[in-house]
Amino acid sequence: MKPEDLNIVALAGGVGGARLADGLAQVLQPQQLTVIVNIGDDFTYIGLRISPDLDTVCYTLAGLSNPVTGWGRSNDTWRVLENLREMGVPGWFQIGDADLATHLIRSFRLQQGDRLSQITRDFCHAWGVQVNVLPMSDDIFHTWVYTDEGDLEFQEYFVHRQSKPKVKGFWFEGVEKARPAEGILEAIDRCDAVVICPSNPWVSIDPIFSIPDLKQAIGGHLVIAISPIIGDQTVKGPAAKMFNELGIQPSALAVAQHYSRTINFLVIDKGDDSLVDDINKLGIQTYPTDILMHDRPDRGRLAQELLDIIKVNR
Amino acid sequence: MKPEDLNIVALAGGVGGARLADGLAQVLQPQQLTVIVNIGDDFTYIGLRISPDLDTVCYTLAGLSNPVTGWGRSNDTWRVLENLREMGVPGWFQIGDADLATHLIRSFRLQQGDRLSQITRDFCHAWGVQVNVLPMSDDIFHTWVYTDEGDLEFQEYFVHRQSKPKVKGFWFEGVEKARPAEGILEAIDRCDAVVICPSNPWVSIDPIFSIPDLKQAIGGHLVIAISPIIGDQTVKGPAAKMFNELGIQPSALAVAQHYSRTINFLVIDKGDDSLVDDINKLGIQTYPTDILMHDRPDRGRLAQELLDIIKVNR
Q1: In the predicted model, is pLDDT for residue A267 greater than 60?
Q2: Which residue among A17, A112, A122, A305 is least crowded, i.e. fewest CB within 10 A of its CB?
Q3: Which helix (H) or strand (E) covers residue B135, if one does?
Q4: Is residue A163, in this structure, part of any structural domain at all?
């Protein structure tokens, strides 16, 4: 088949997902790629609706993201946050001034009754992002983390408590009623493969898969995941810590087991090739390569390897 | 009487009102001064409640105001506004980054059900303002300007249209139901004089006076106004233009006629002393002096002259 015939749906959380989405955008035409983004981390801060993963994906695709942190905007300033803190507002969530404009417009438009997916489309248009980026749902959906310090909303756990409380489980508030955002089922229907980005399985990918209609639509498609675990570590975020606290040794094998009913392929780090046999026993094919994305060209290189796998296996 | 026994209520709009309030704060102890501020100019901008006059008064009293414009904050930056404009939001209202923190907190707290007067009190506390600053009301109140280009909300007329449409009249939306904010009637009850700051009579002072309970409470008190008109000009804003468009020659006499049923004293510019007889004929005493406040010491000087008048006439 011609490369231009390949349609890909990518499921993404924050920084890791955004980086692979950027890689895929480098090797595909915009109309070939739909990125479905976790909204379980979304929260409200002094009345503003913040969508951390959506923003990270969009800023990254737009070339606006902060290259050091991976989240937020490059060269941002902190005047509003400084003033909020001076006036006694808890300032544990980092919002730059340019970033704040995004949250203001999103919050205002949601108040006016616009859908998150439409707002995201308009943001992408304003930022020159041609790839189709969709929130997983336009409905209310909140990831809760059960911990030894009580039940915490995701950002409370992740940012405010710096992922320190010990994780005991997760709950997705709103999952029963959440429907896929408009355009998602159509994108899945026409895609040649679903790519699960190297995002946190528990709190970035599971929320997306938890939406019944979305999960069902993916069934029967070629699904290829990139392990977010290299050795027993994650590049960023608490995924390895979560595996440990849930009594599971973190590894690419643990990722394969987590996704065993969902994926056909797991792309693992070449340093983890001793796990190939055990992963294959789960009925999952493996592809060991260098999965750490060191820089932008590396994102494109990994994405191209994915396309090569998909072309052979679809 | 001792100076510390004098209690003053000042009615203020934006820049002119803020400057005299600052002068009064220089010559009185904080507990001797209550400033009641117009909220008819308040409006909503991308979901944020903006209270321009309240902010101008509070920023000025806090020493935070922009000394050049009179409104907004000194040394402010414009990152959020720049980004809002880049994303297509109409950016005709100037909101600096530090200023925005004020609007964010106010909007959030109003959403939570807090009263504007309580929020203003907390802002003043955070900014070290000890004077009692109160919005004229905690209720909904909007000044509309009837013009030859249609009926315009005040900020639409004033900022967006730069006061260019020809004024035909005014309407105060919500006036029937608006009650004075908590603490206003008590402050008026115990005051020795009400000072009407050199603010726009039509759109800064009339809205305050339009609240029935507030107007009634002022009846019987010594009321002293400072003319916002010098010669046939205002220092700032469209007051002179409004007088003209309503068919009235702007002058201190016109101000006296406008306030004739309300005030006992009008402080006018010494250059306007030819109007003294005509103003006296309205039953209003006059006090010609230099009413232009050139700098901060000048505000205190004018305020001291007011106190001297009040001490003699109360």
Answers
A1: yes
A2: A112
A3: strand B132-135
A4: no
Q: Please, what is the average pLDDT of chain A?
A: 95
**Average pLDDT for B292-313:** 95
CA B45 to chain A, closest CA, distance in angstroms equals 9
Residue A186 lies in a domain: yes
pLDDT recorded at residue A4: 61
Give the count of beta carbons closer than 10 Å to the beta carbon of residue B104: 26
Residue-averaged pLDDT of chain B: 95
Residue A69 neighbours by CB under 8 Å, 6+ apart: none
Query: Residue B89: closest CA among chain A residues belongs to which residue?
Result: A105
Give me the residues paired with residue B147 across strands.
B150, B167
Q: Considering only residues 57 to 86 of chain A, which have any Cβ-Cβ distance to chain B shorter than 8 Å?
A: 76-77, 79-84, 86
The shortest CB-CB distance from A83 to any of B46, B98, B108 is to: B98
What is the rounded CA–CA span in Å between residue B266 and residue B255?
A: 9
Find the domain containing A42 and state its range: 3-148+172-313
The domain total for chain B is 1
- The ipTM (two decimal places) reads 0.88
CA distance B48 to chain A (A): 9
Nearest CB to B84; choose among A47, A89, A105 = A105
Helix (H, G, I), strand (E, B) or coil at B229: strand
Residues of A in contact with B77 (CB under 8 A): 77, 79, 97
Query: Please, what is the end-to-end C-alpha distance for chain A in angstroms?
Result: 10
In this prediction, residue A91 carries a pLDDT of 78
Name the DSSP letter for residue B177. T
Residues B268, B304: Cα–Cα separation, whole Å: 15
In tens, the pLDDT along B226-273 reads 999 999 999 888 999 999 999 999 999 999 999 999 999 999 999 999
Residue B50 in domain: no
CATH number where A230 lies: 3.40.50.10680
pLDDT at B2: 56
pTM value?
A: 0.92
A269 contacts A230 by C-beta, under 8 angstroms: yes
Percent of chain B whose predicted confidence (pLDDT) is above 90: 92
Give the pLDDT band (50/70/90) at residue A2.
low
| Cβ-defined contact of A104 to B76 (cutoff 8 Å) | no
Structure tokens at B233: 């000009």
Residue A96: what residue type?
G
Q: How far apart are CA B54 and CA B31, in angstroms?
A: 19
Report the alpha-carbon distance of residue A262 to residue A218 in Å, rounded: 9
pLDDT at site A5? 80
Q: Give a yes or no: residue A302 inside a domain.
A: yes
Mutation pick from A44, A49, A73, A100 vs chain B, by most beta carbons of B within 10 Å, is A100
How large is the average pLDDT for residues A166-185? 97
Can you tell me the distance from the alpha carbon of A12 to that of A205, in angstroms, rounded to the nearest whole number? 7
Mind telling me how many Å the CA of A76 is from chain B's nearest CA?
Answer: 8
- Find the CB nearest B46 among A82, A87, A105: A105
Instruction: Collect all residues of chain B within an 8 Å Cβ-Cβ radius of residue A82.
Output: 98
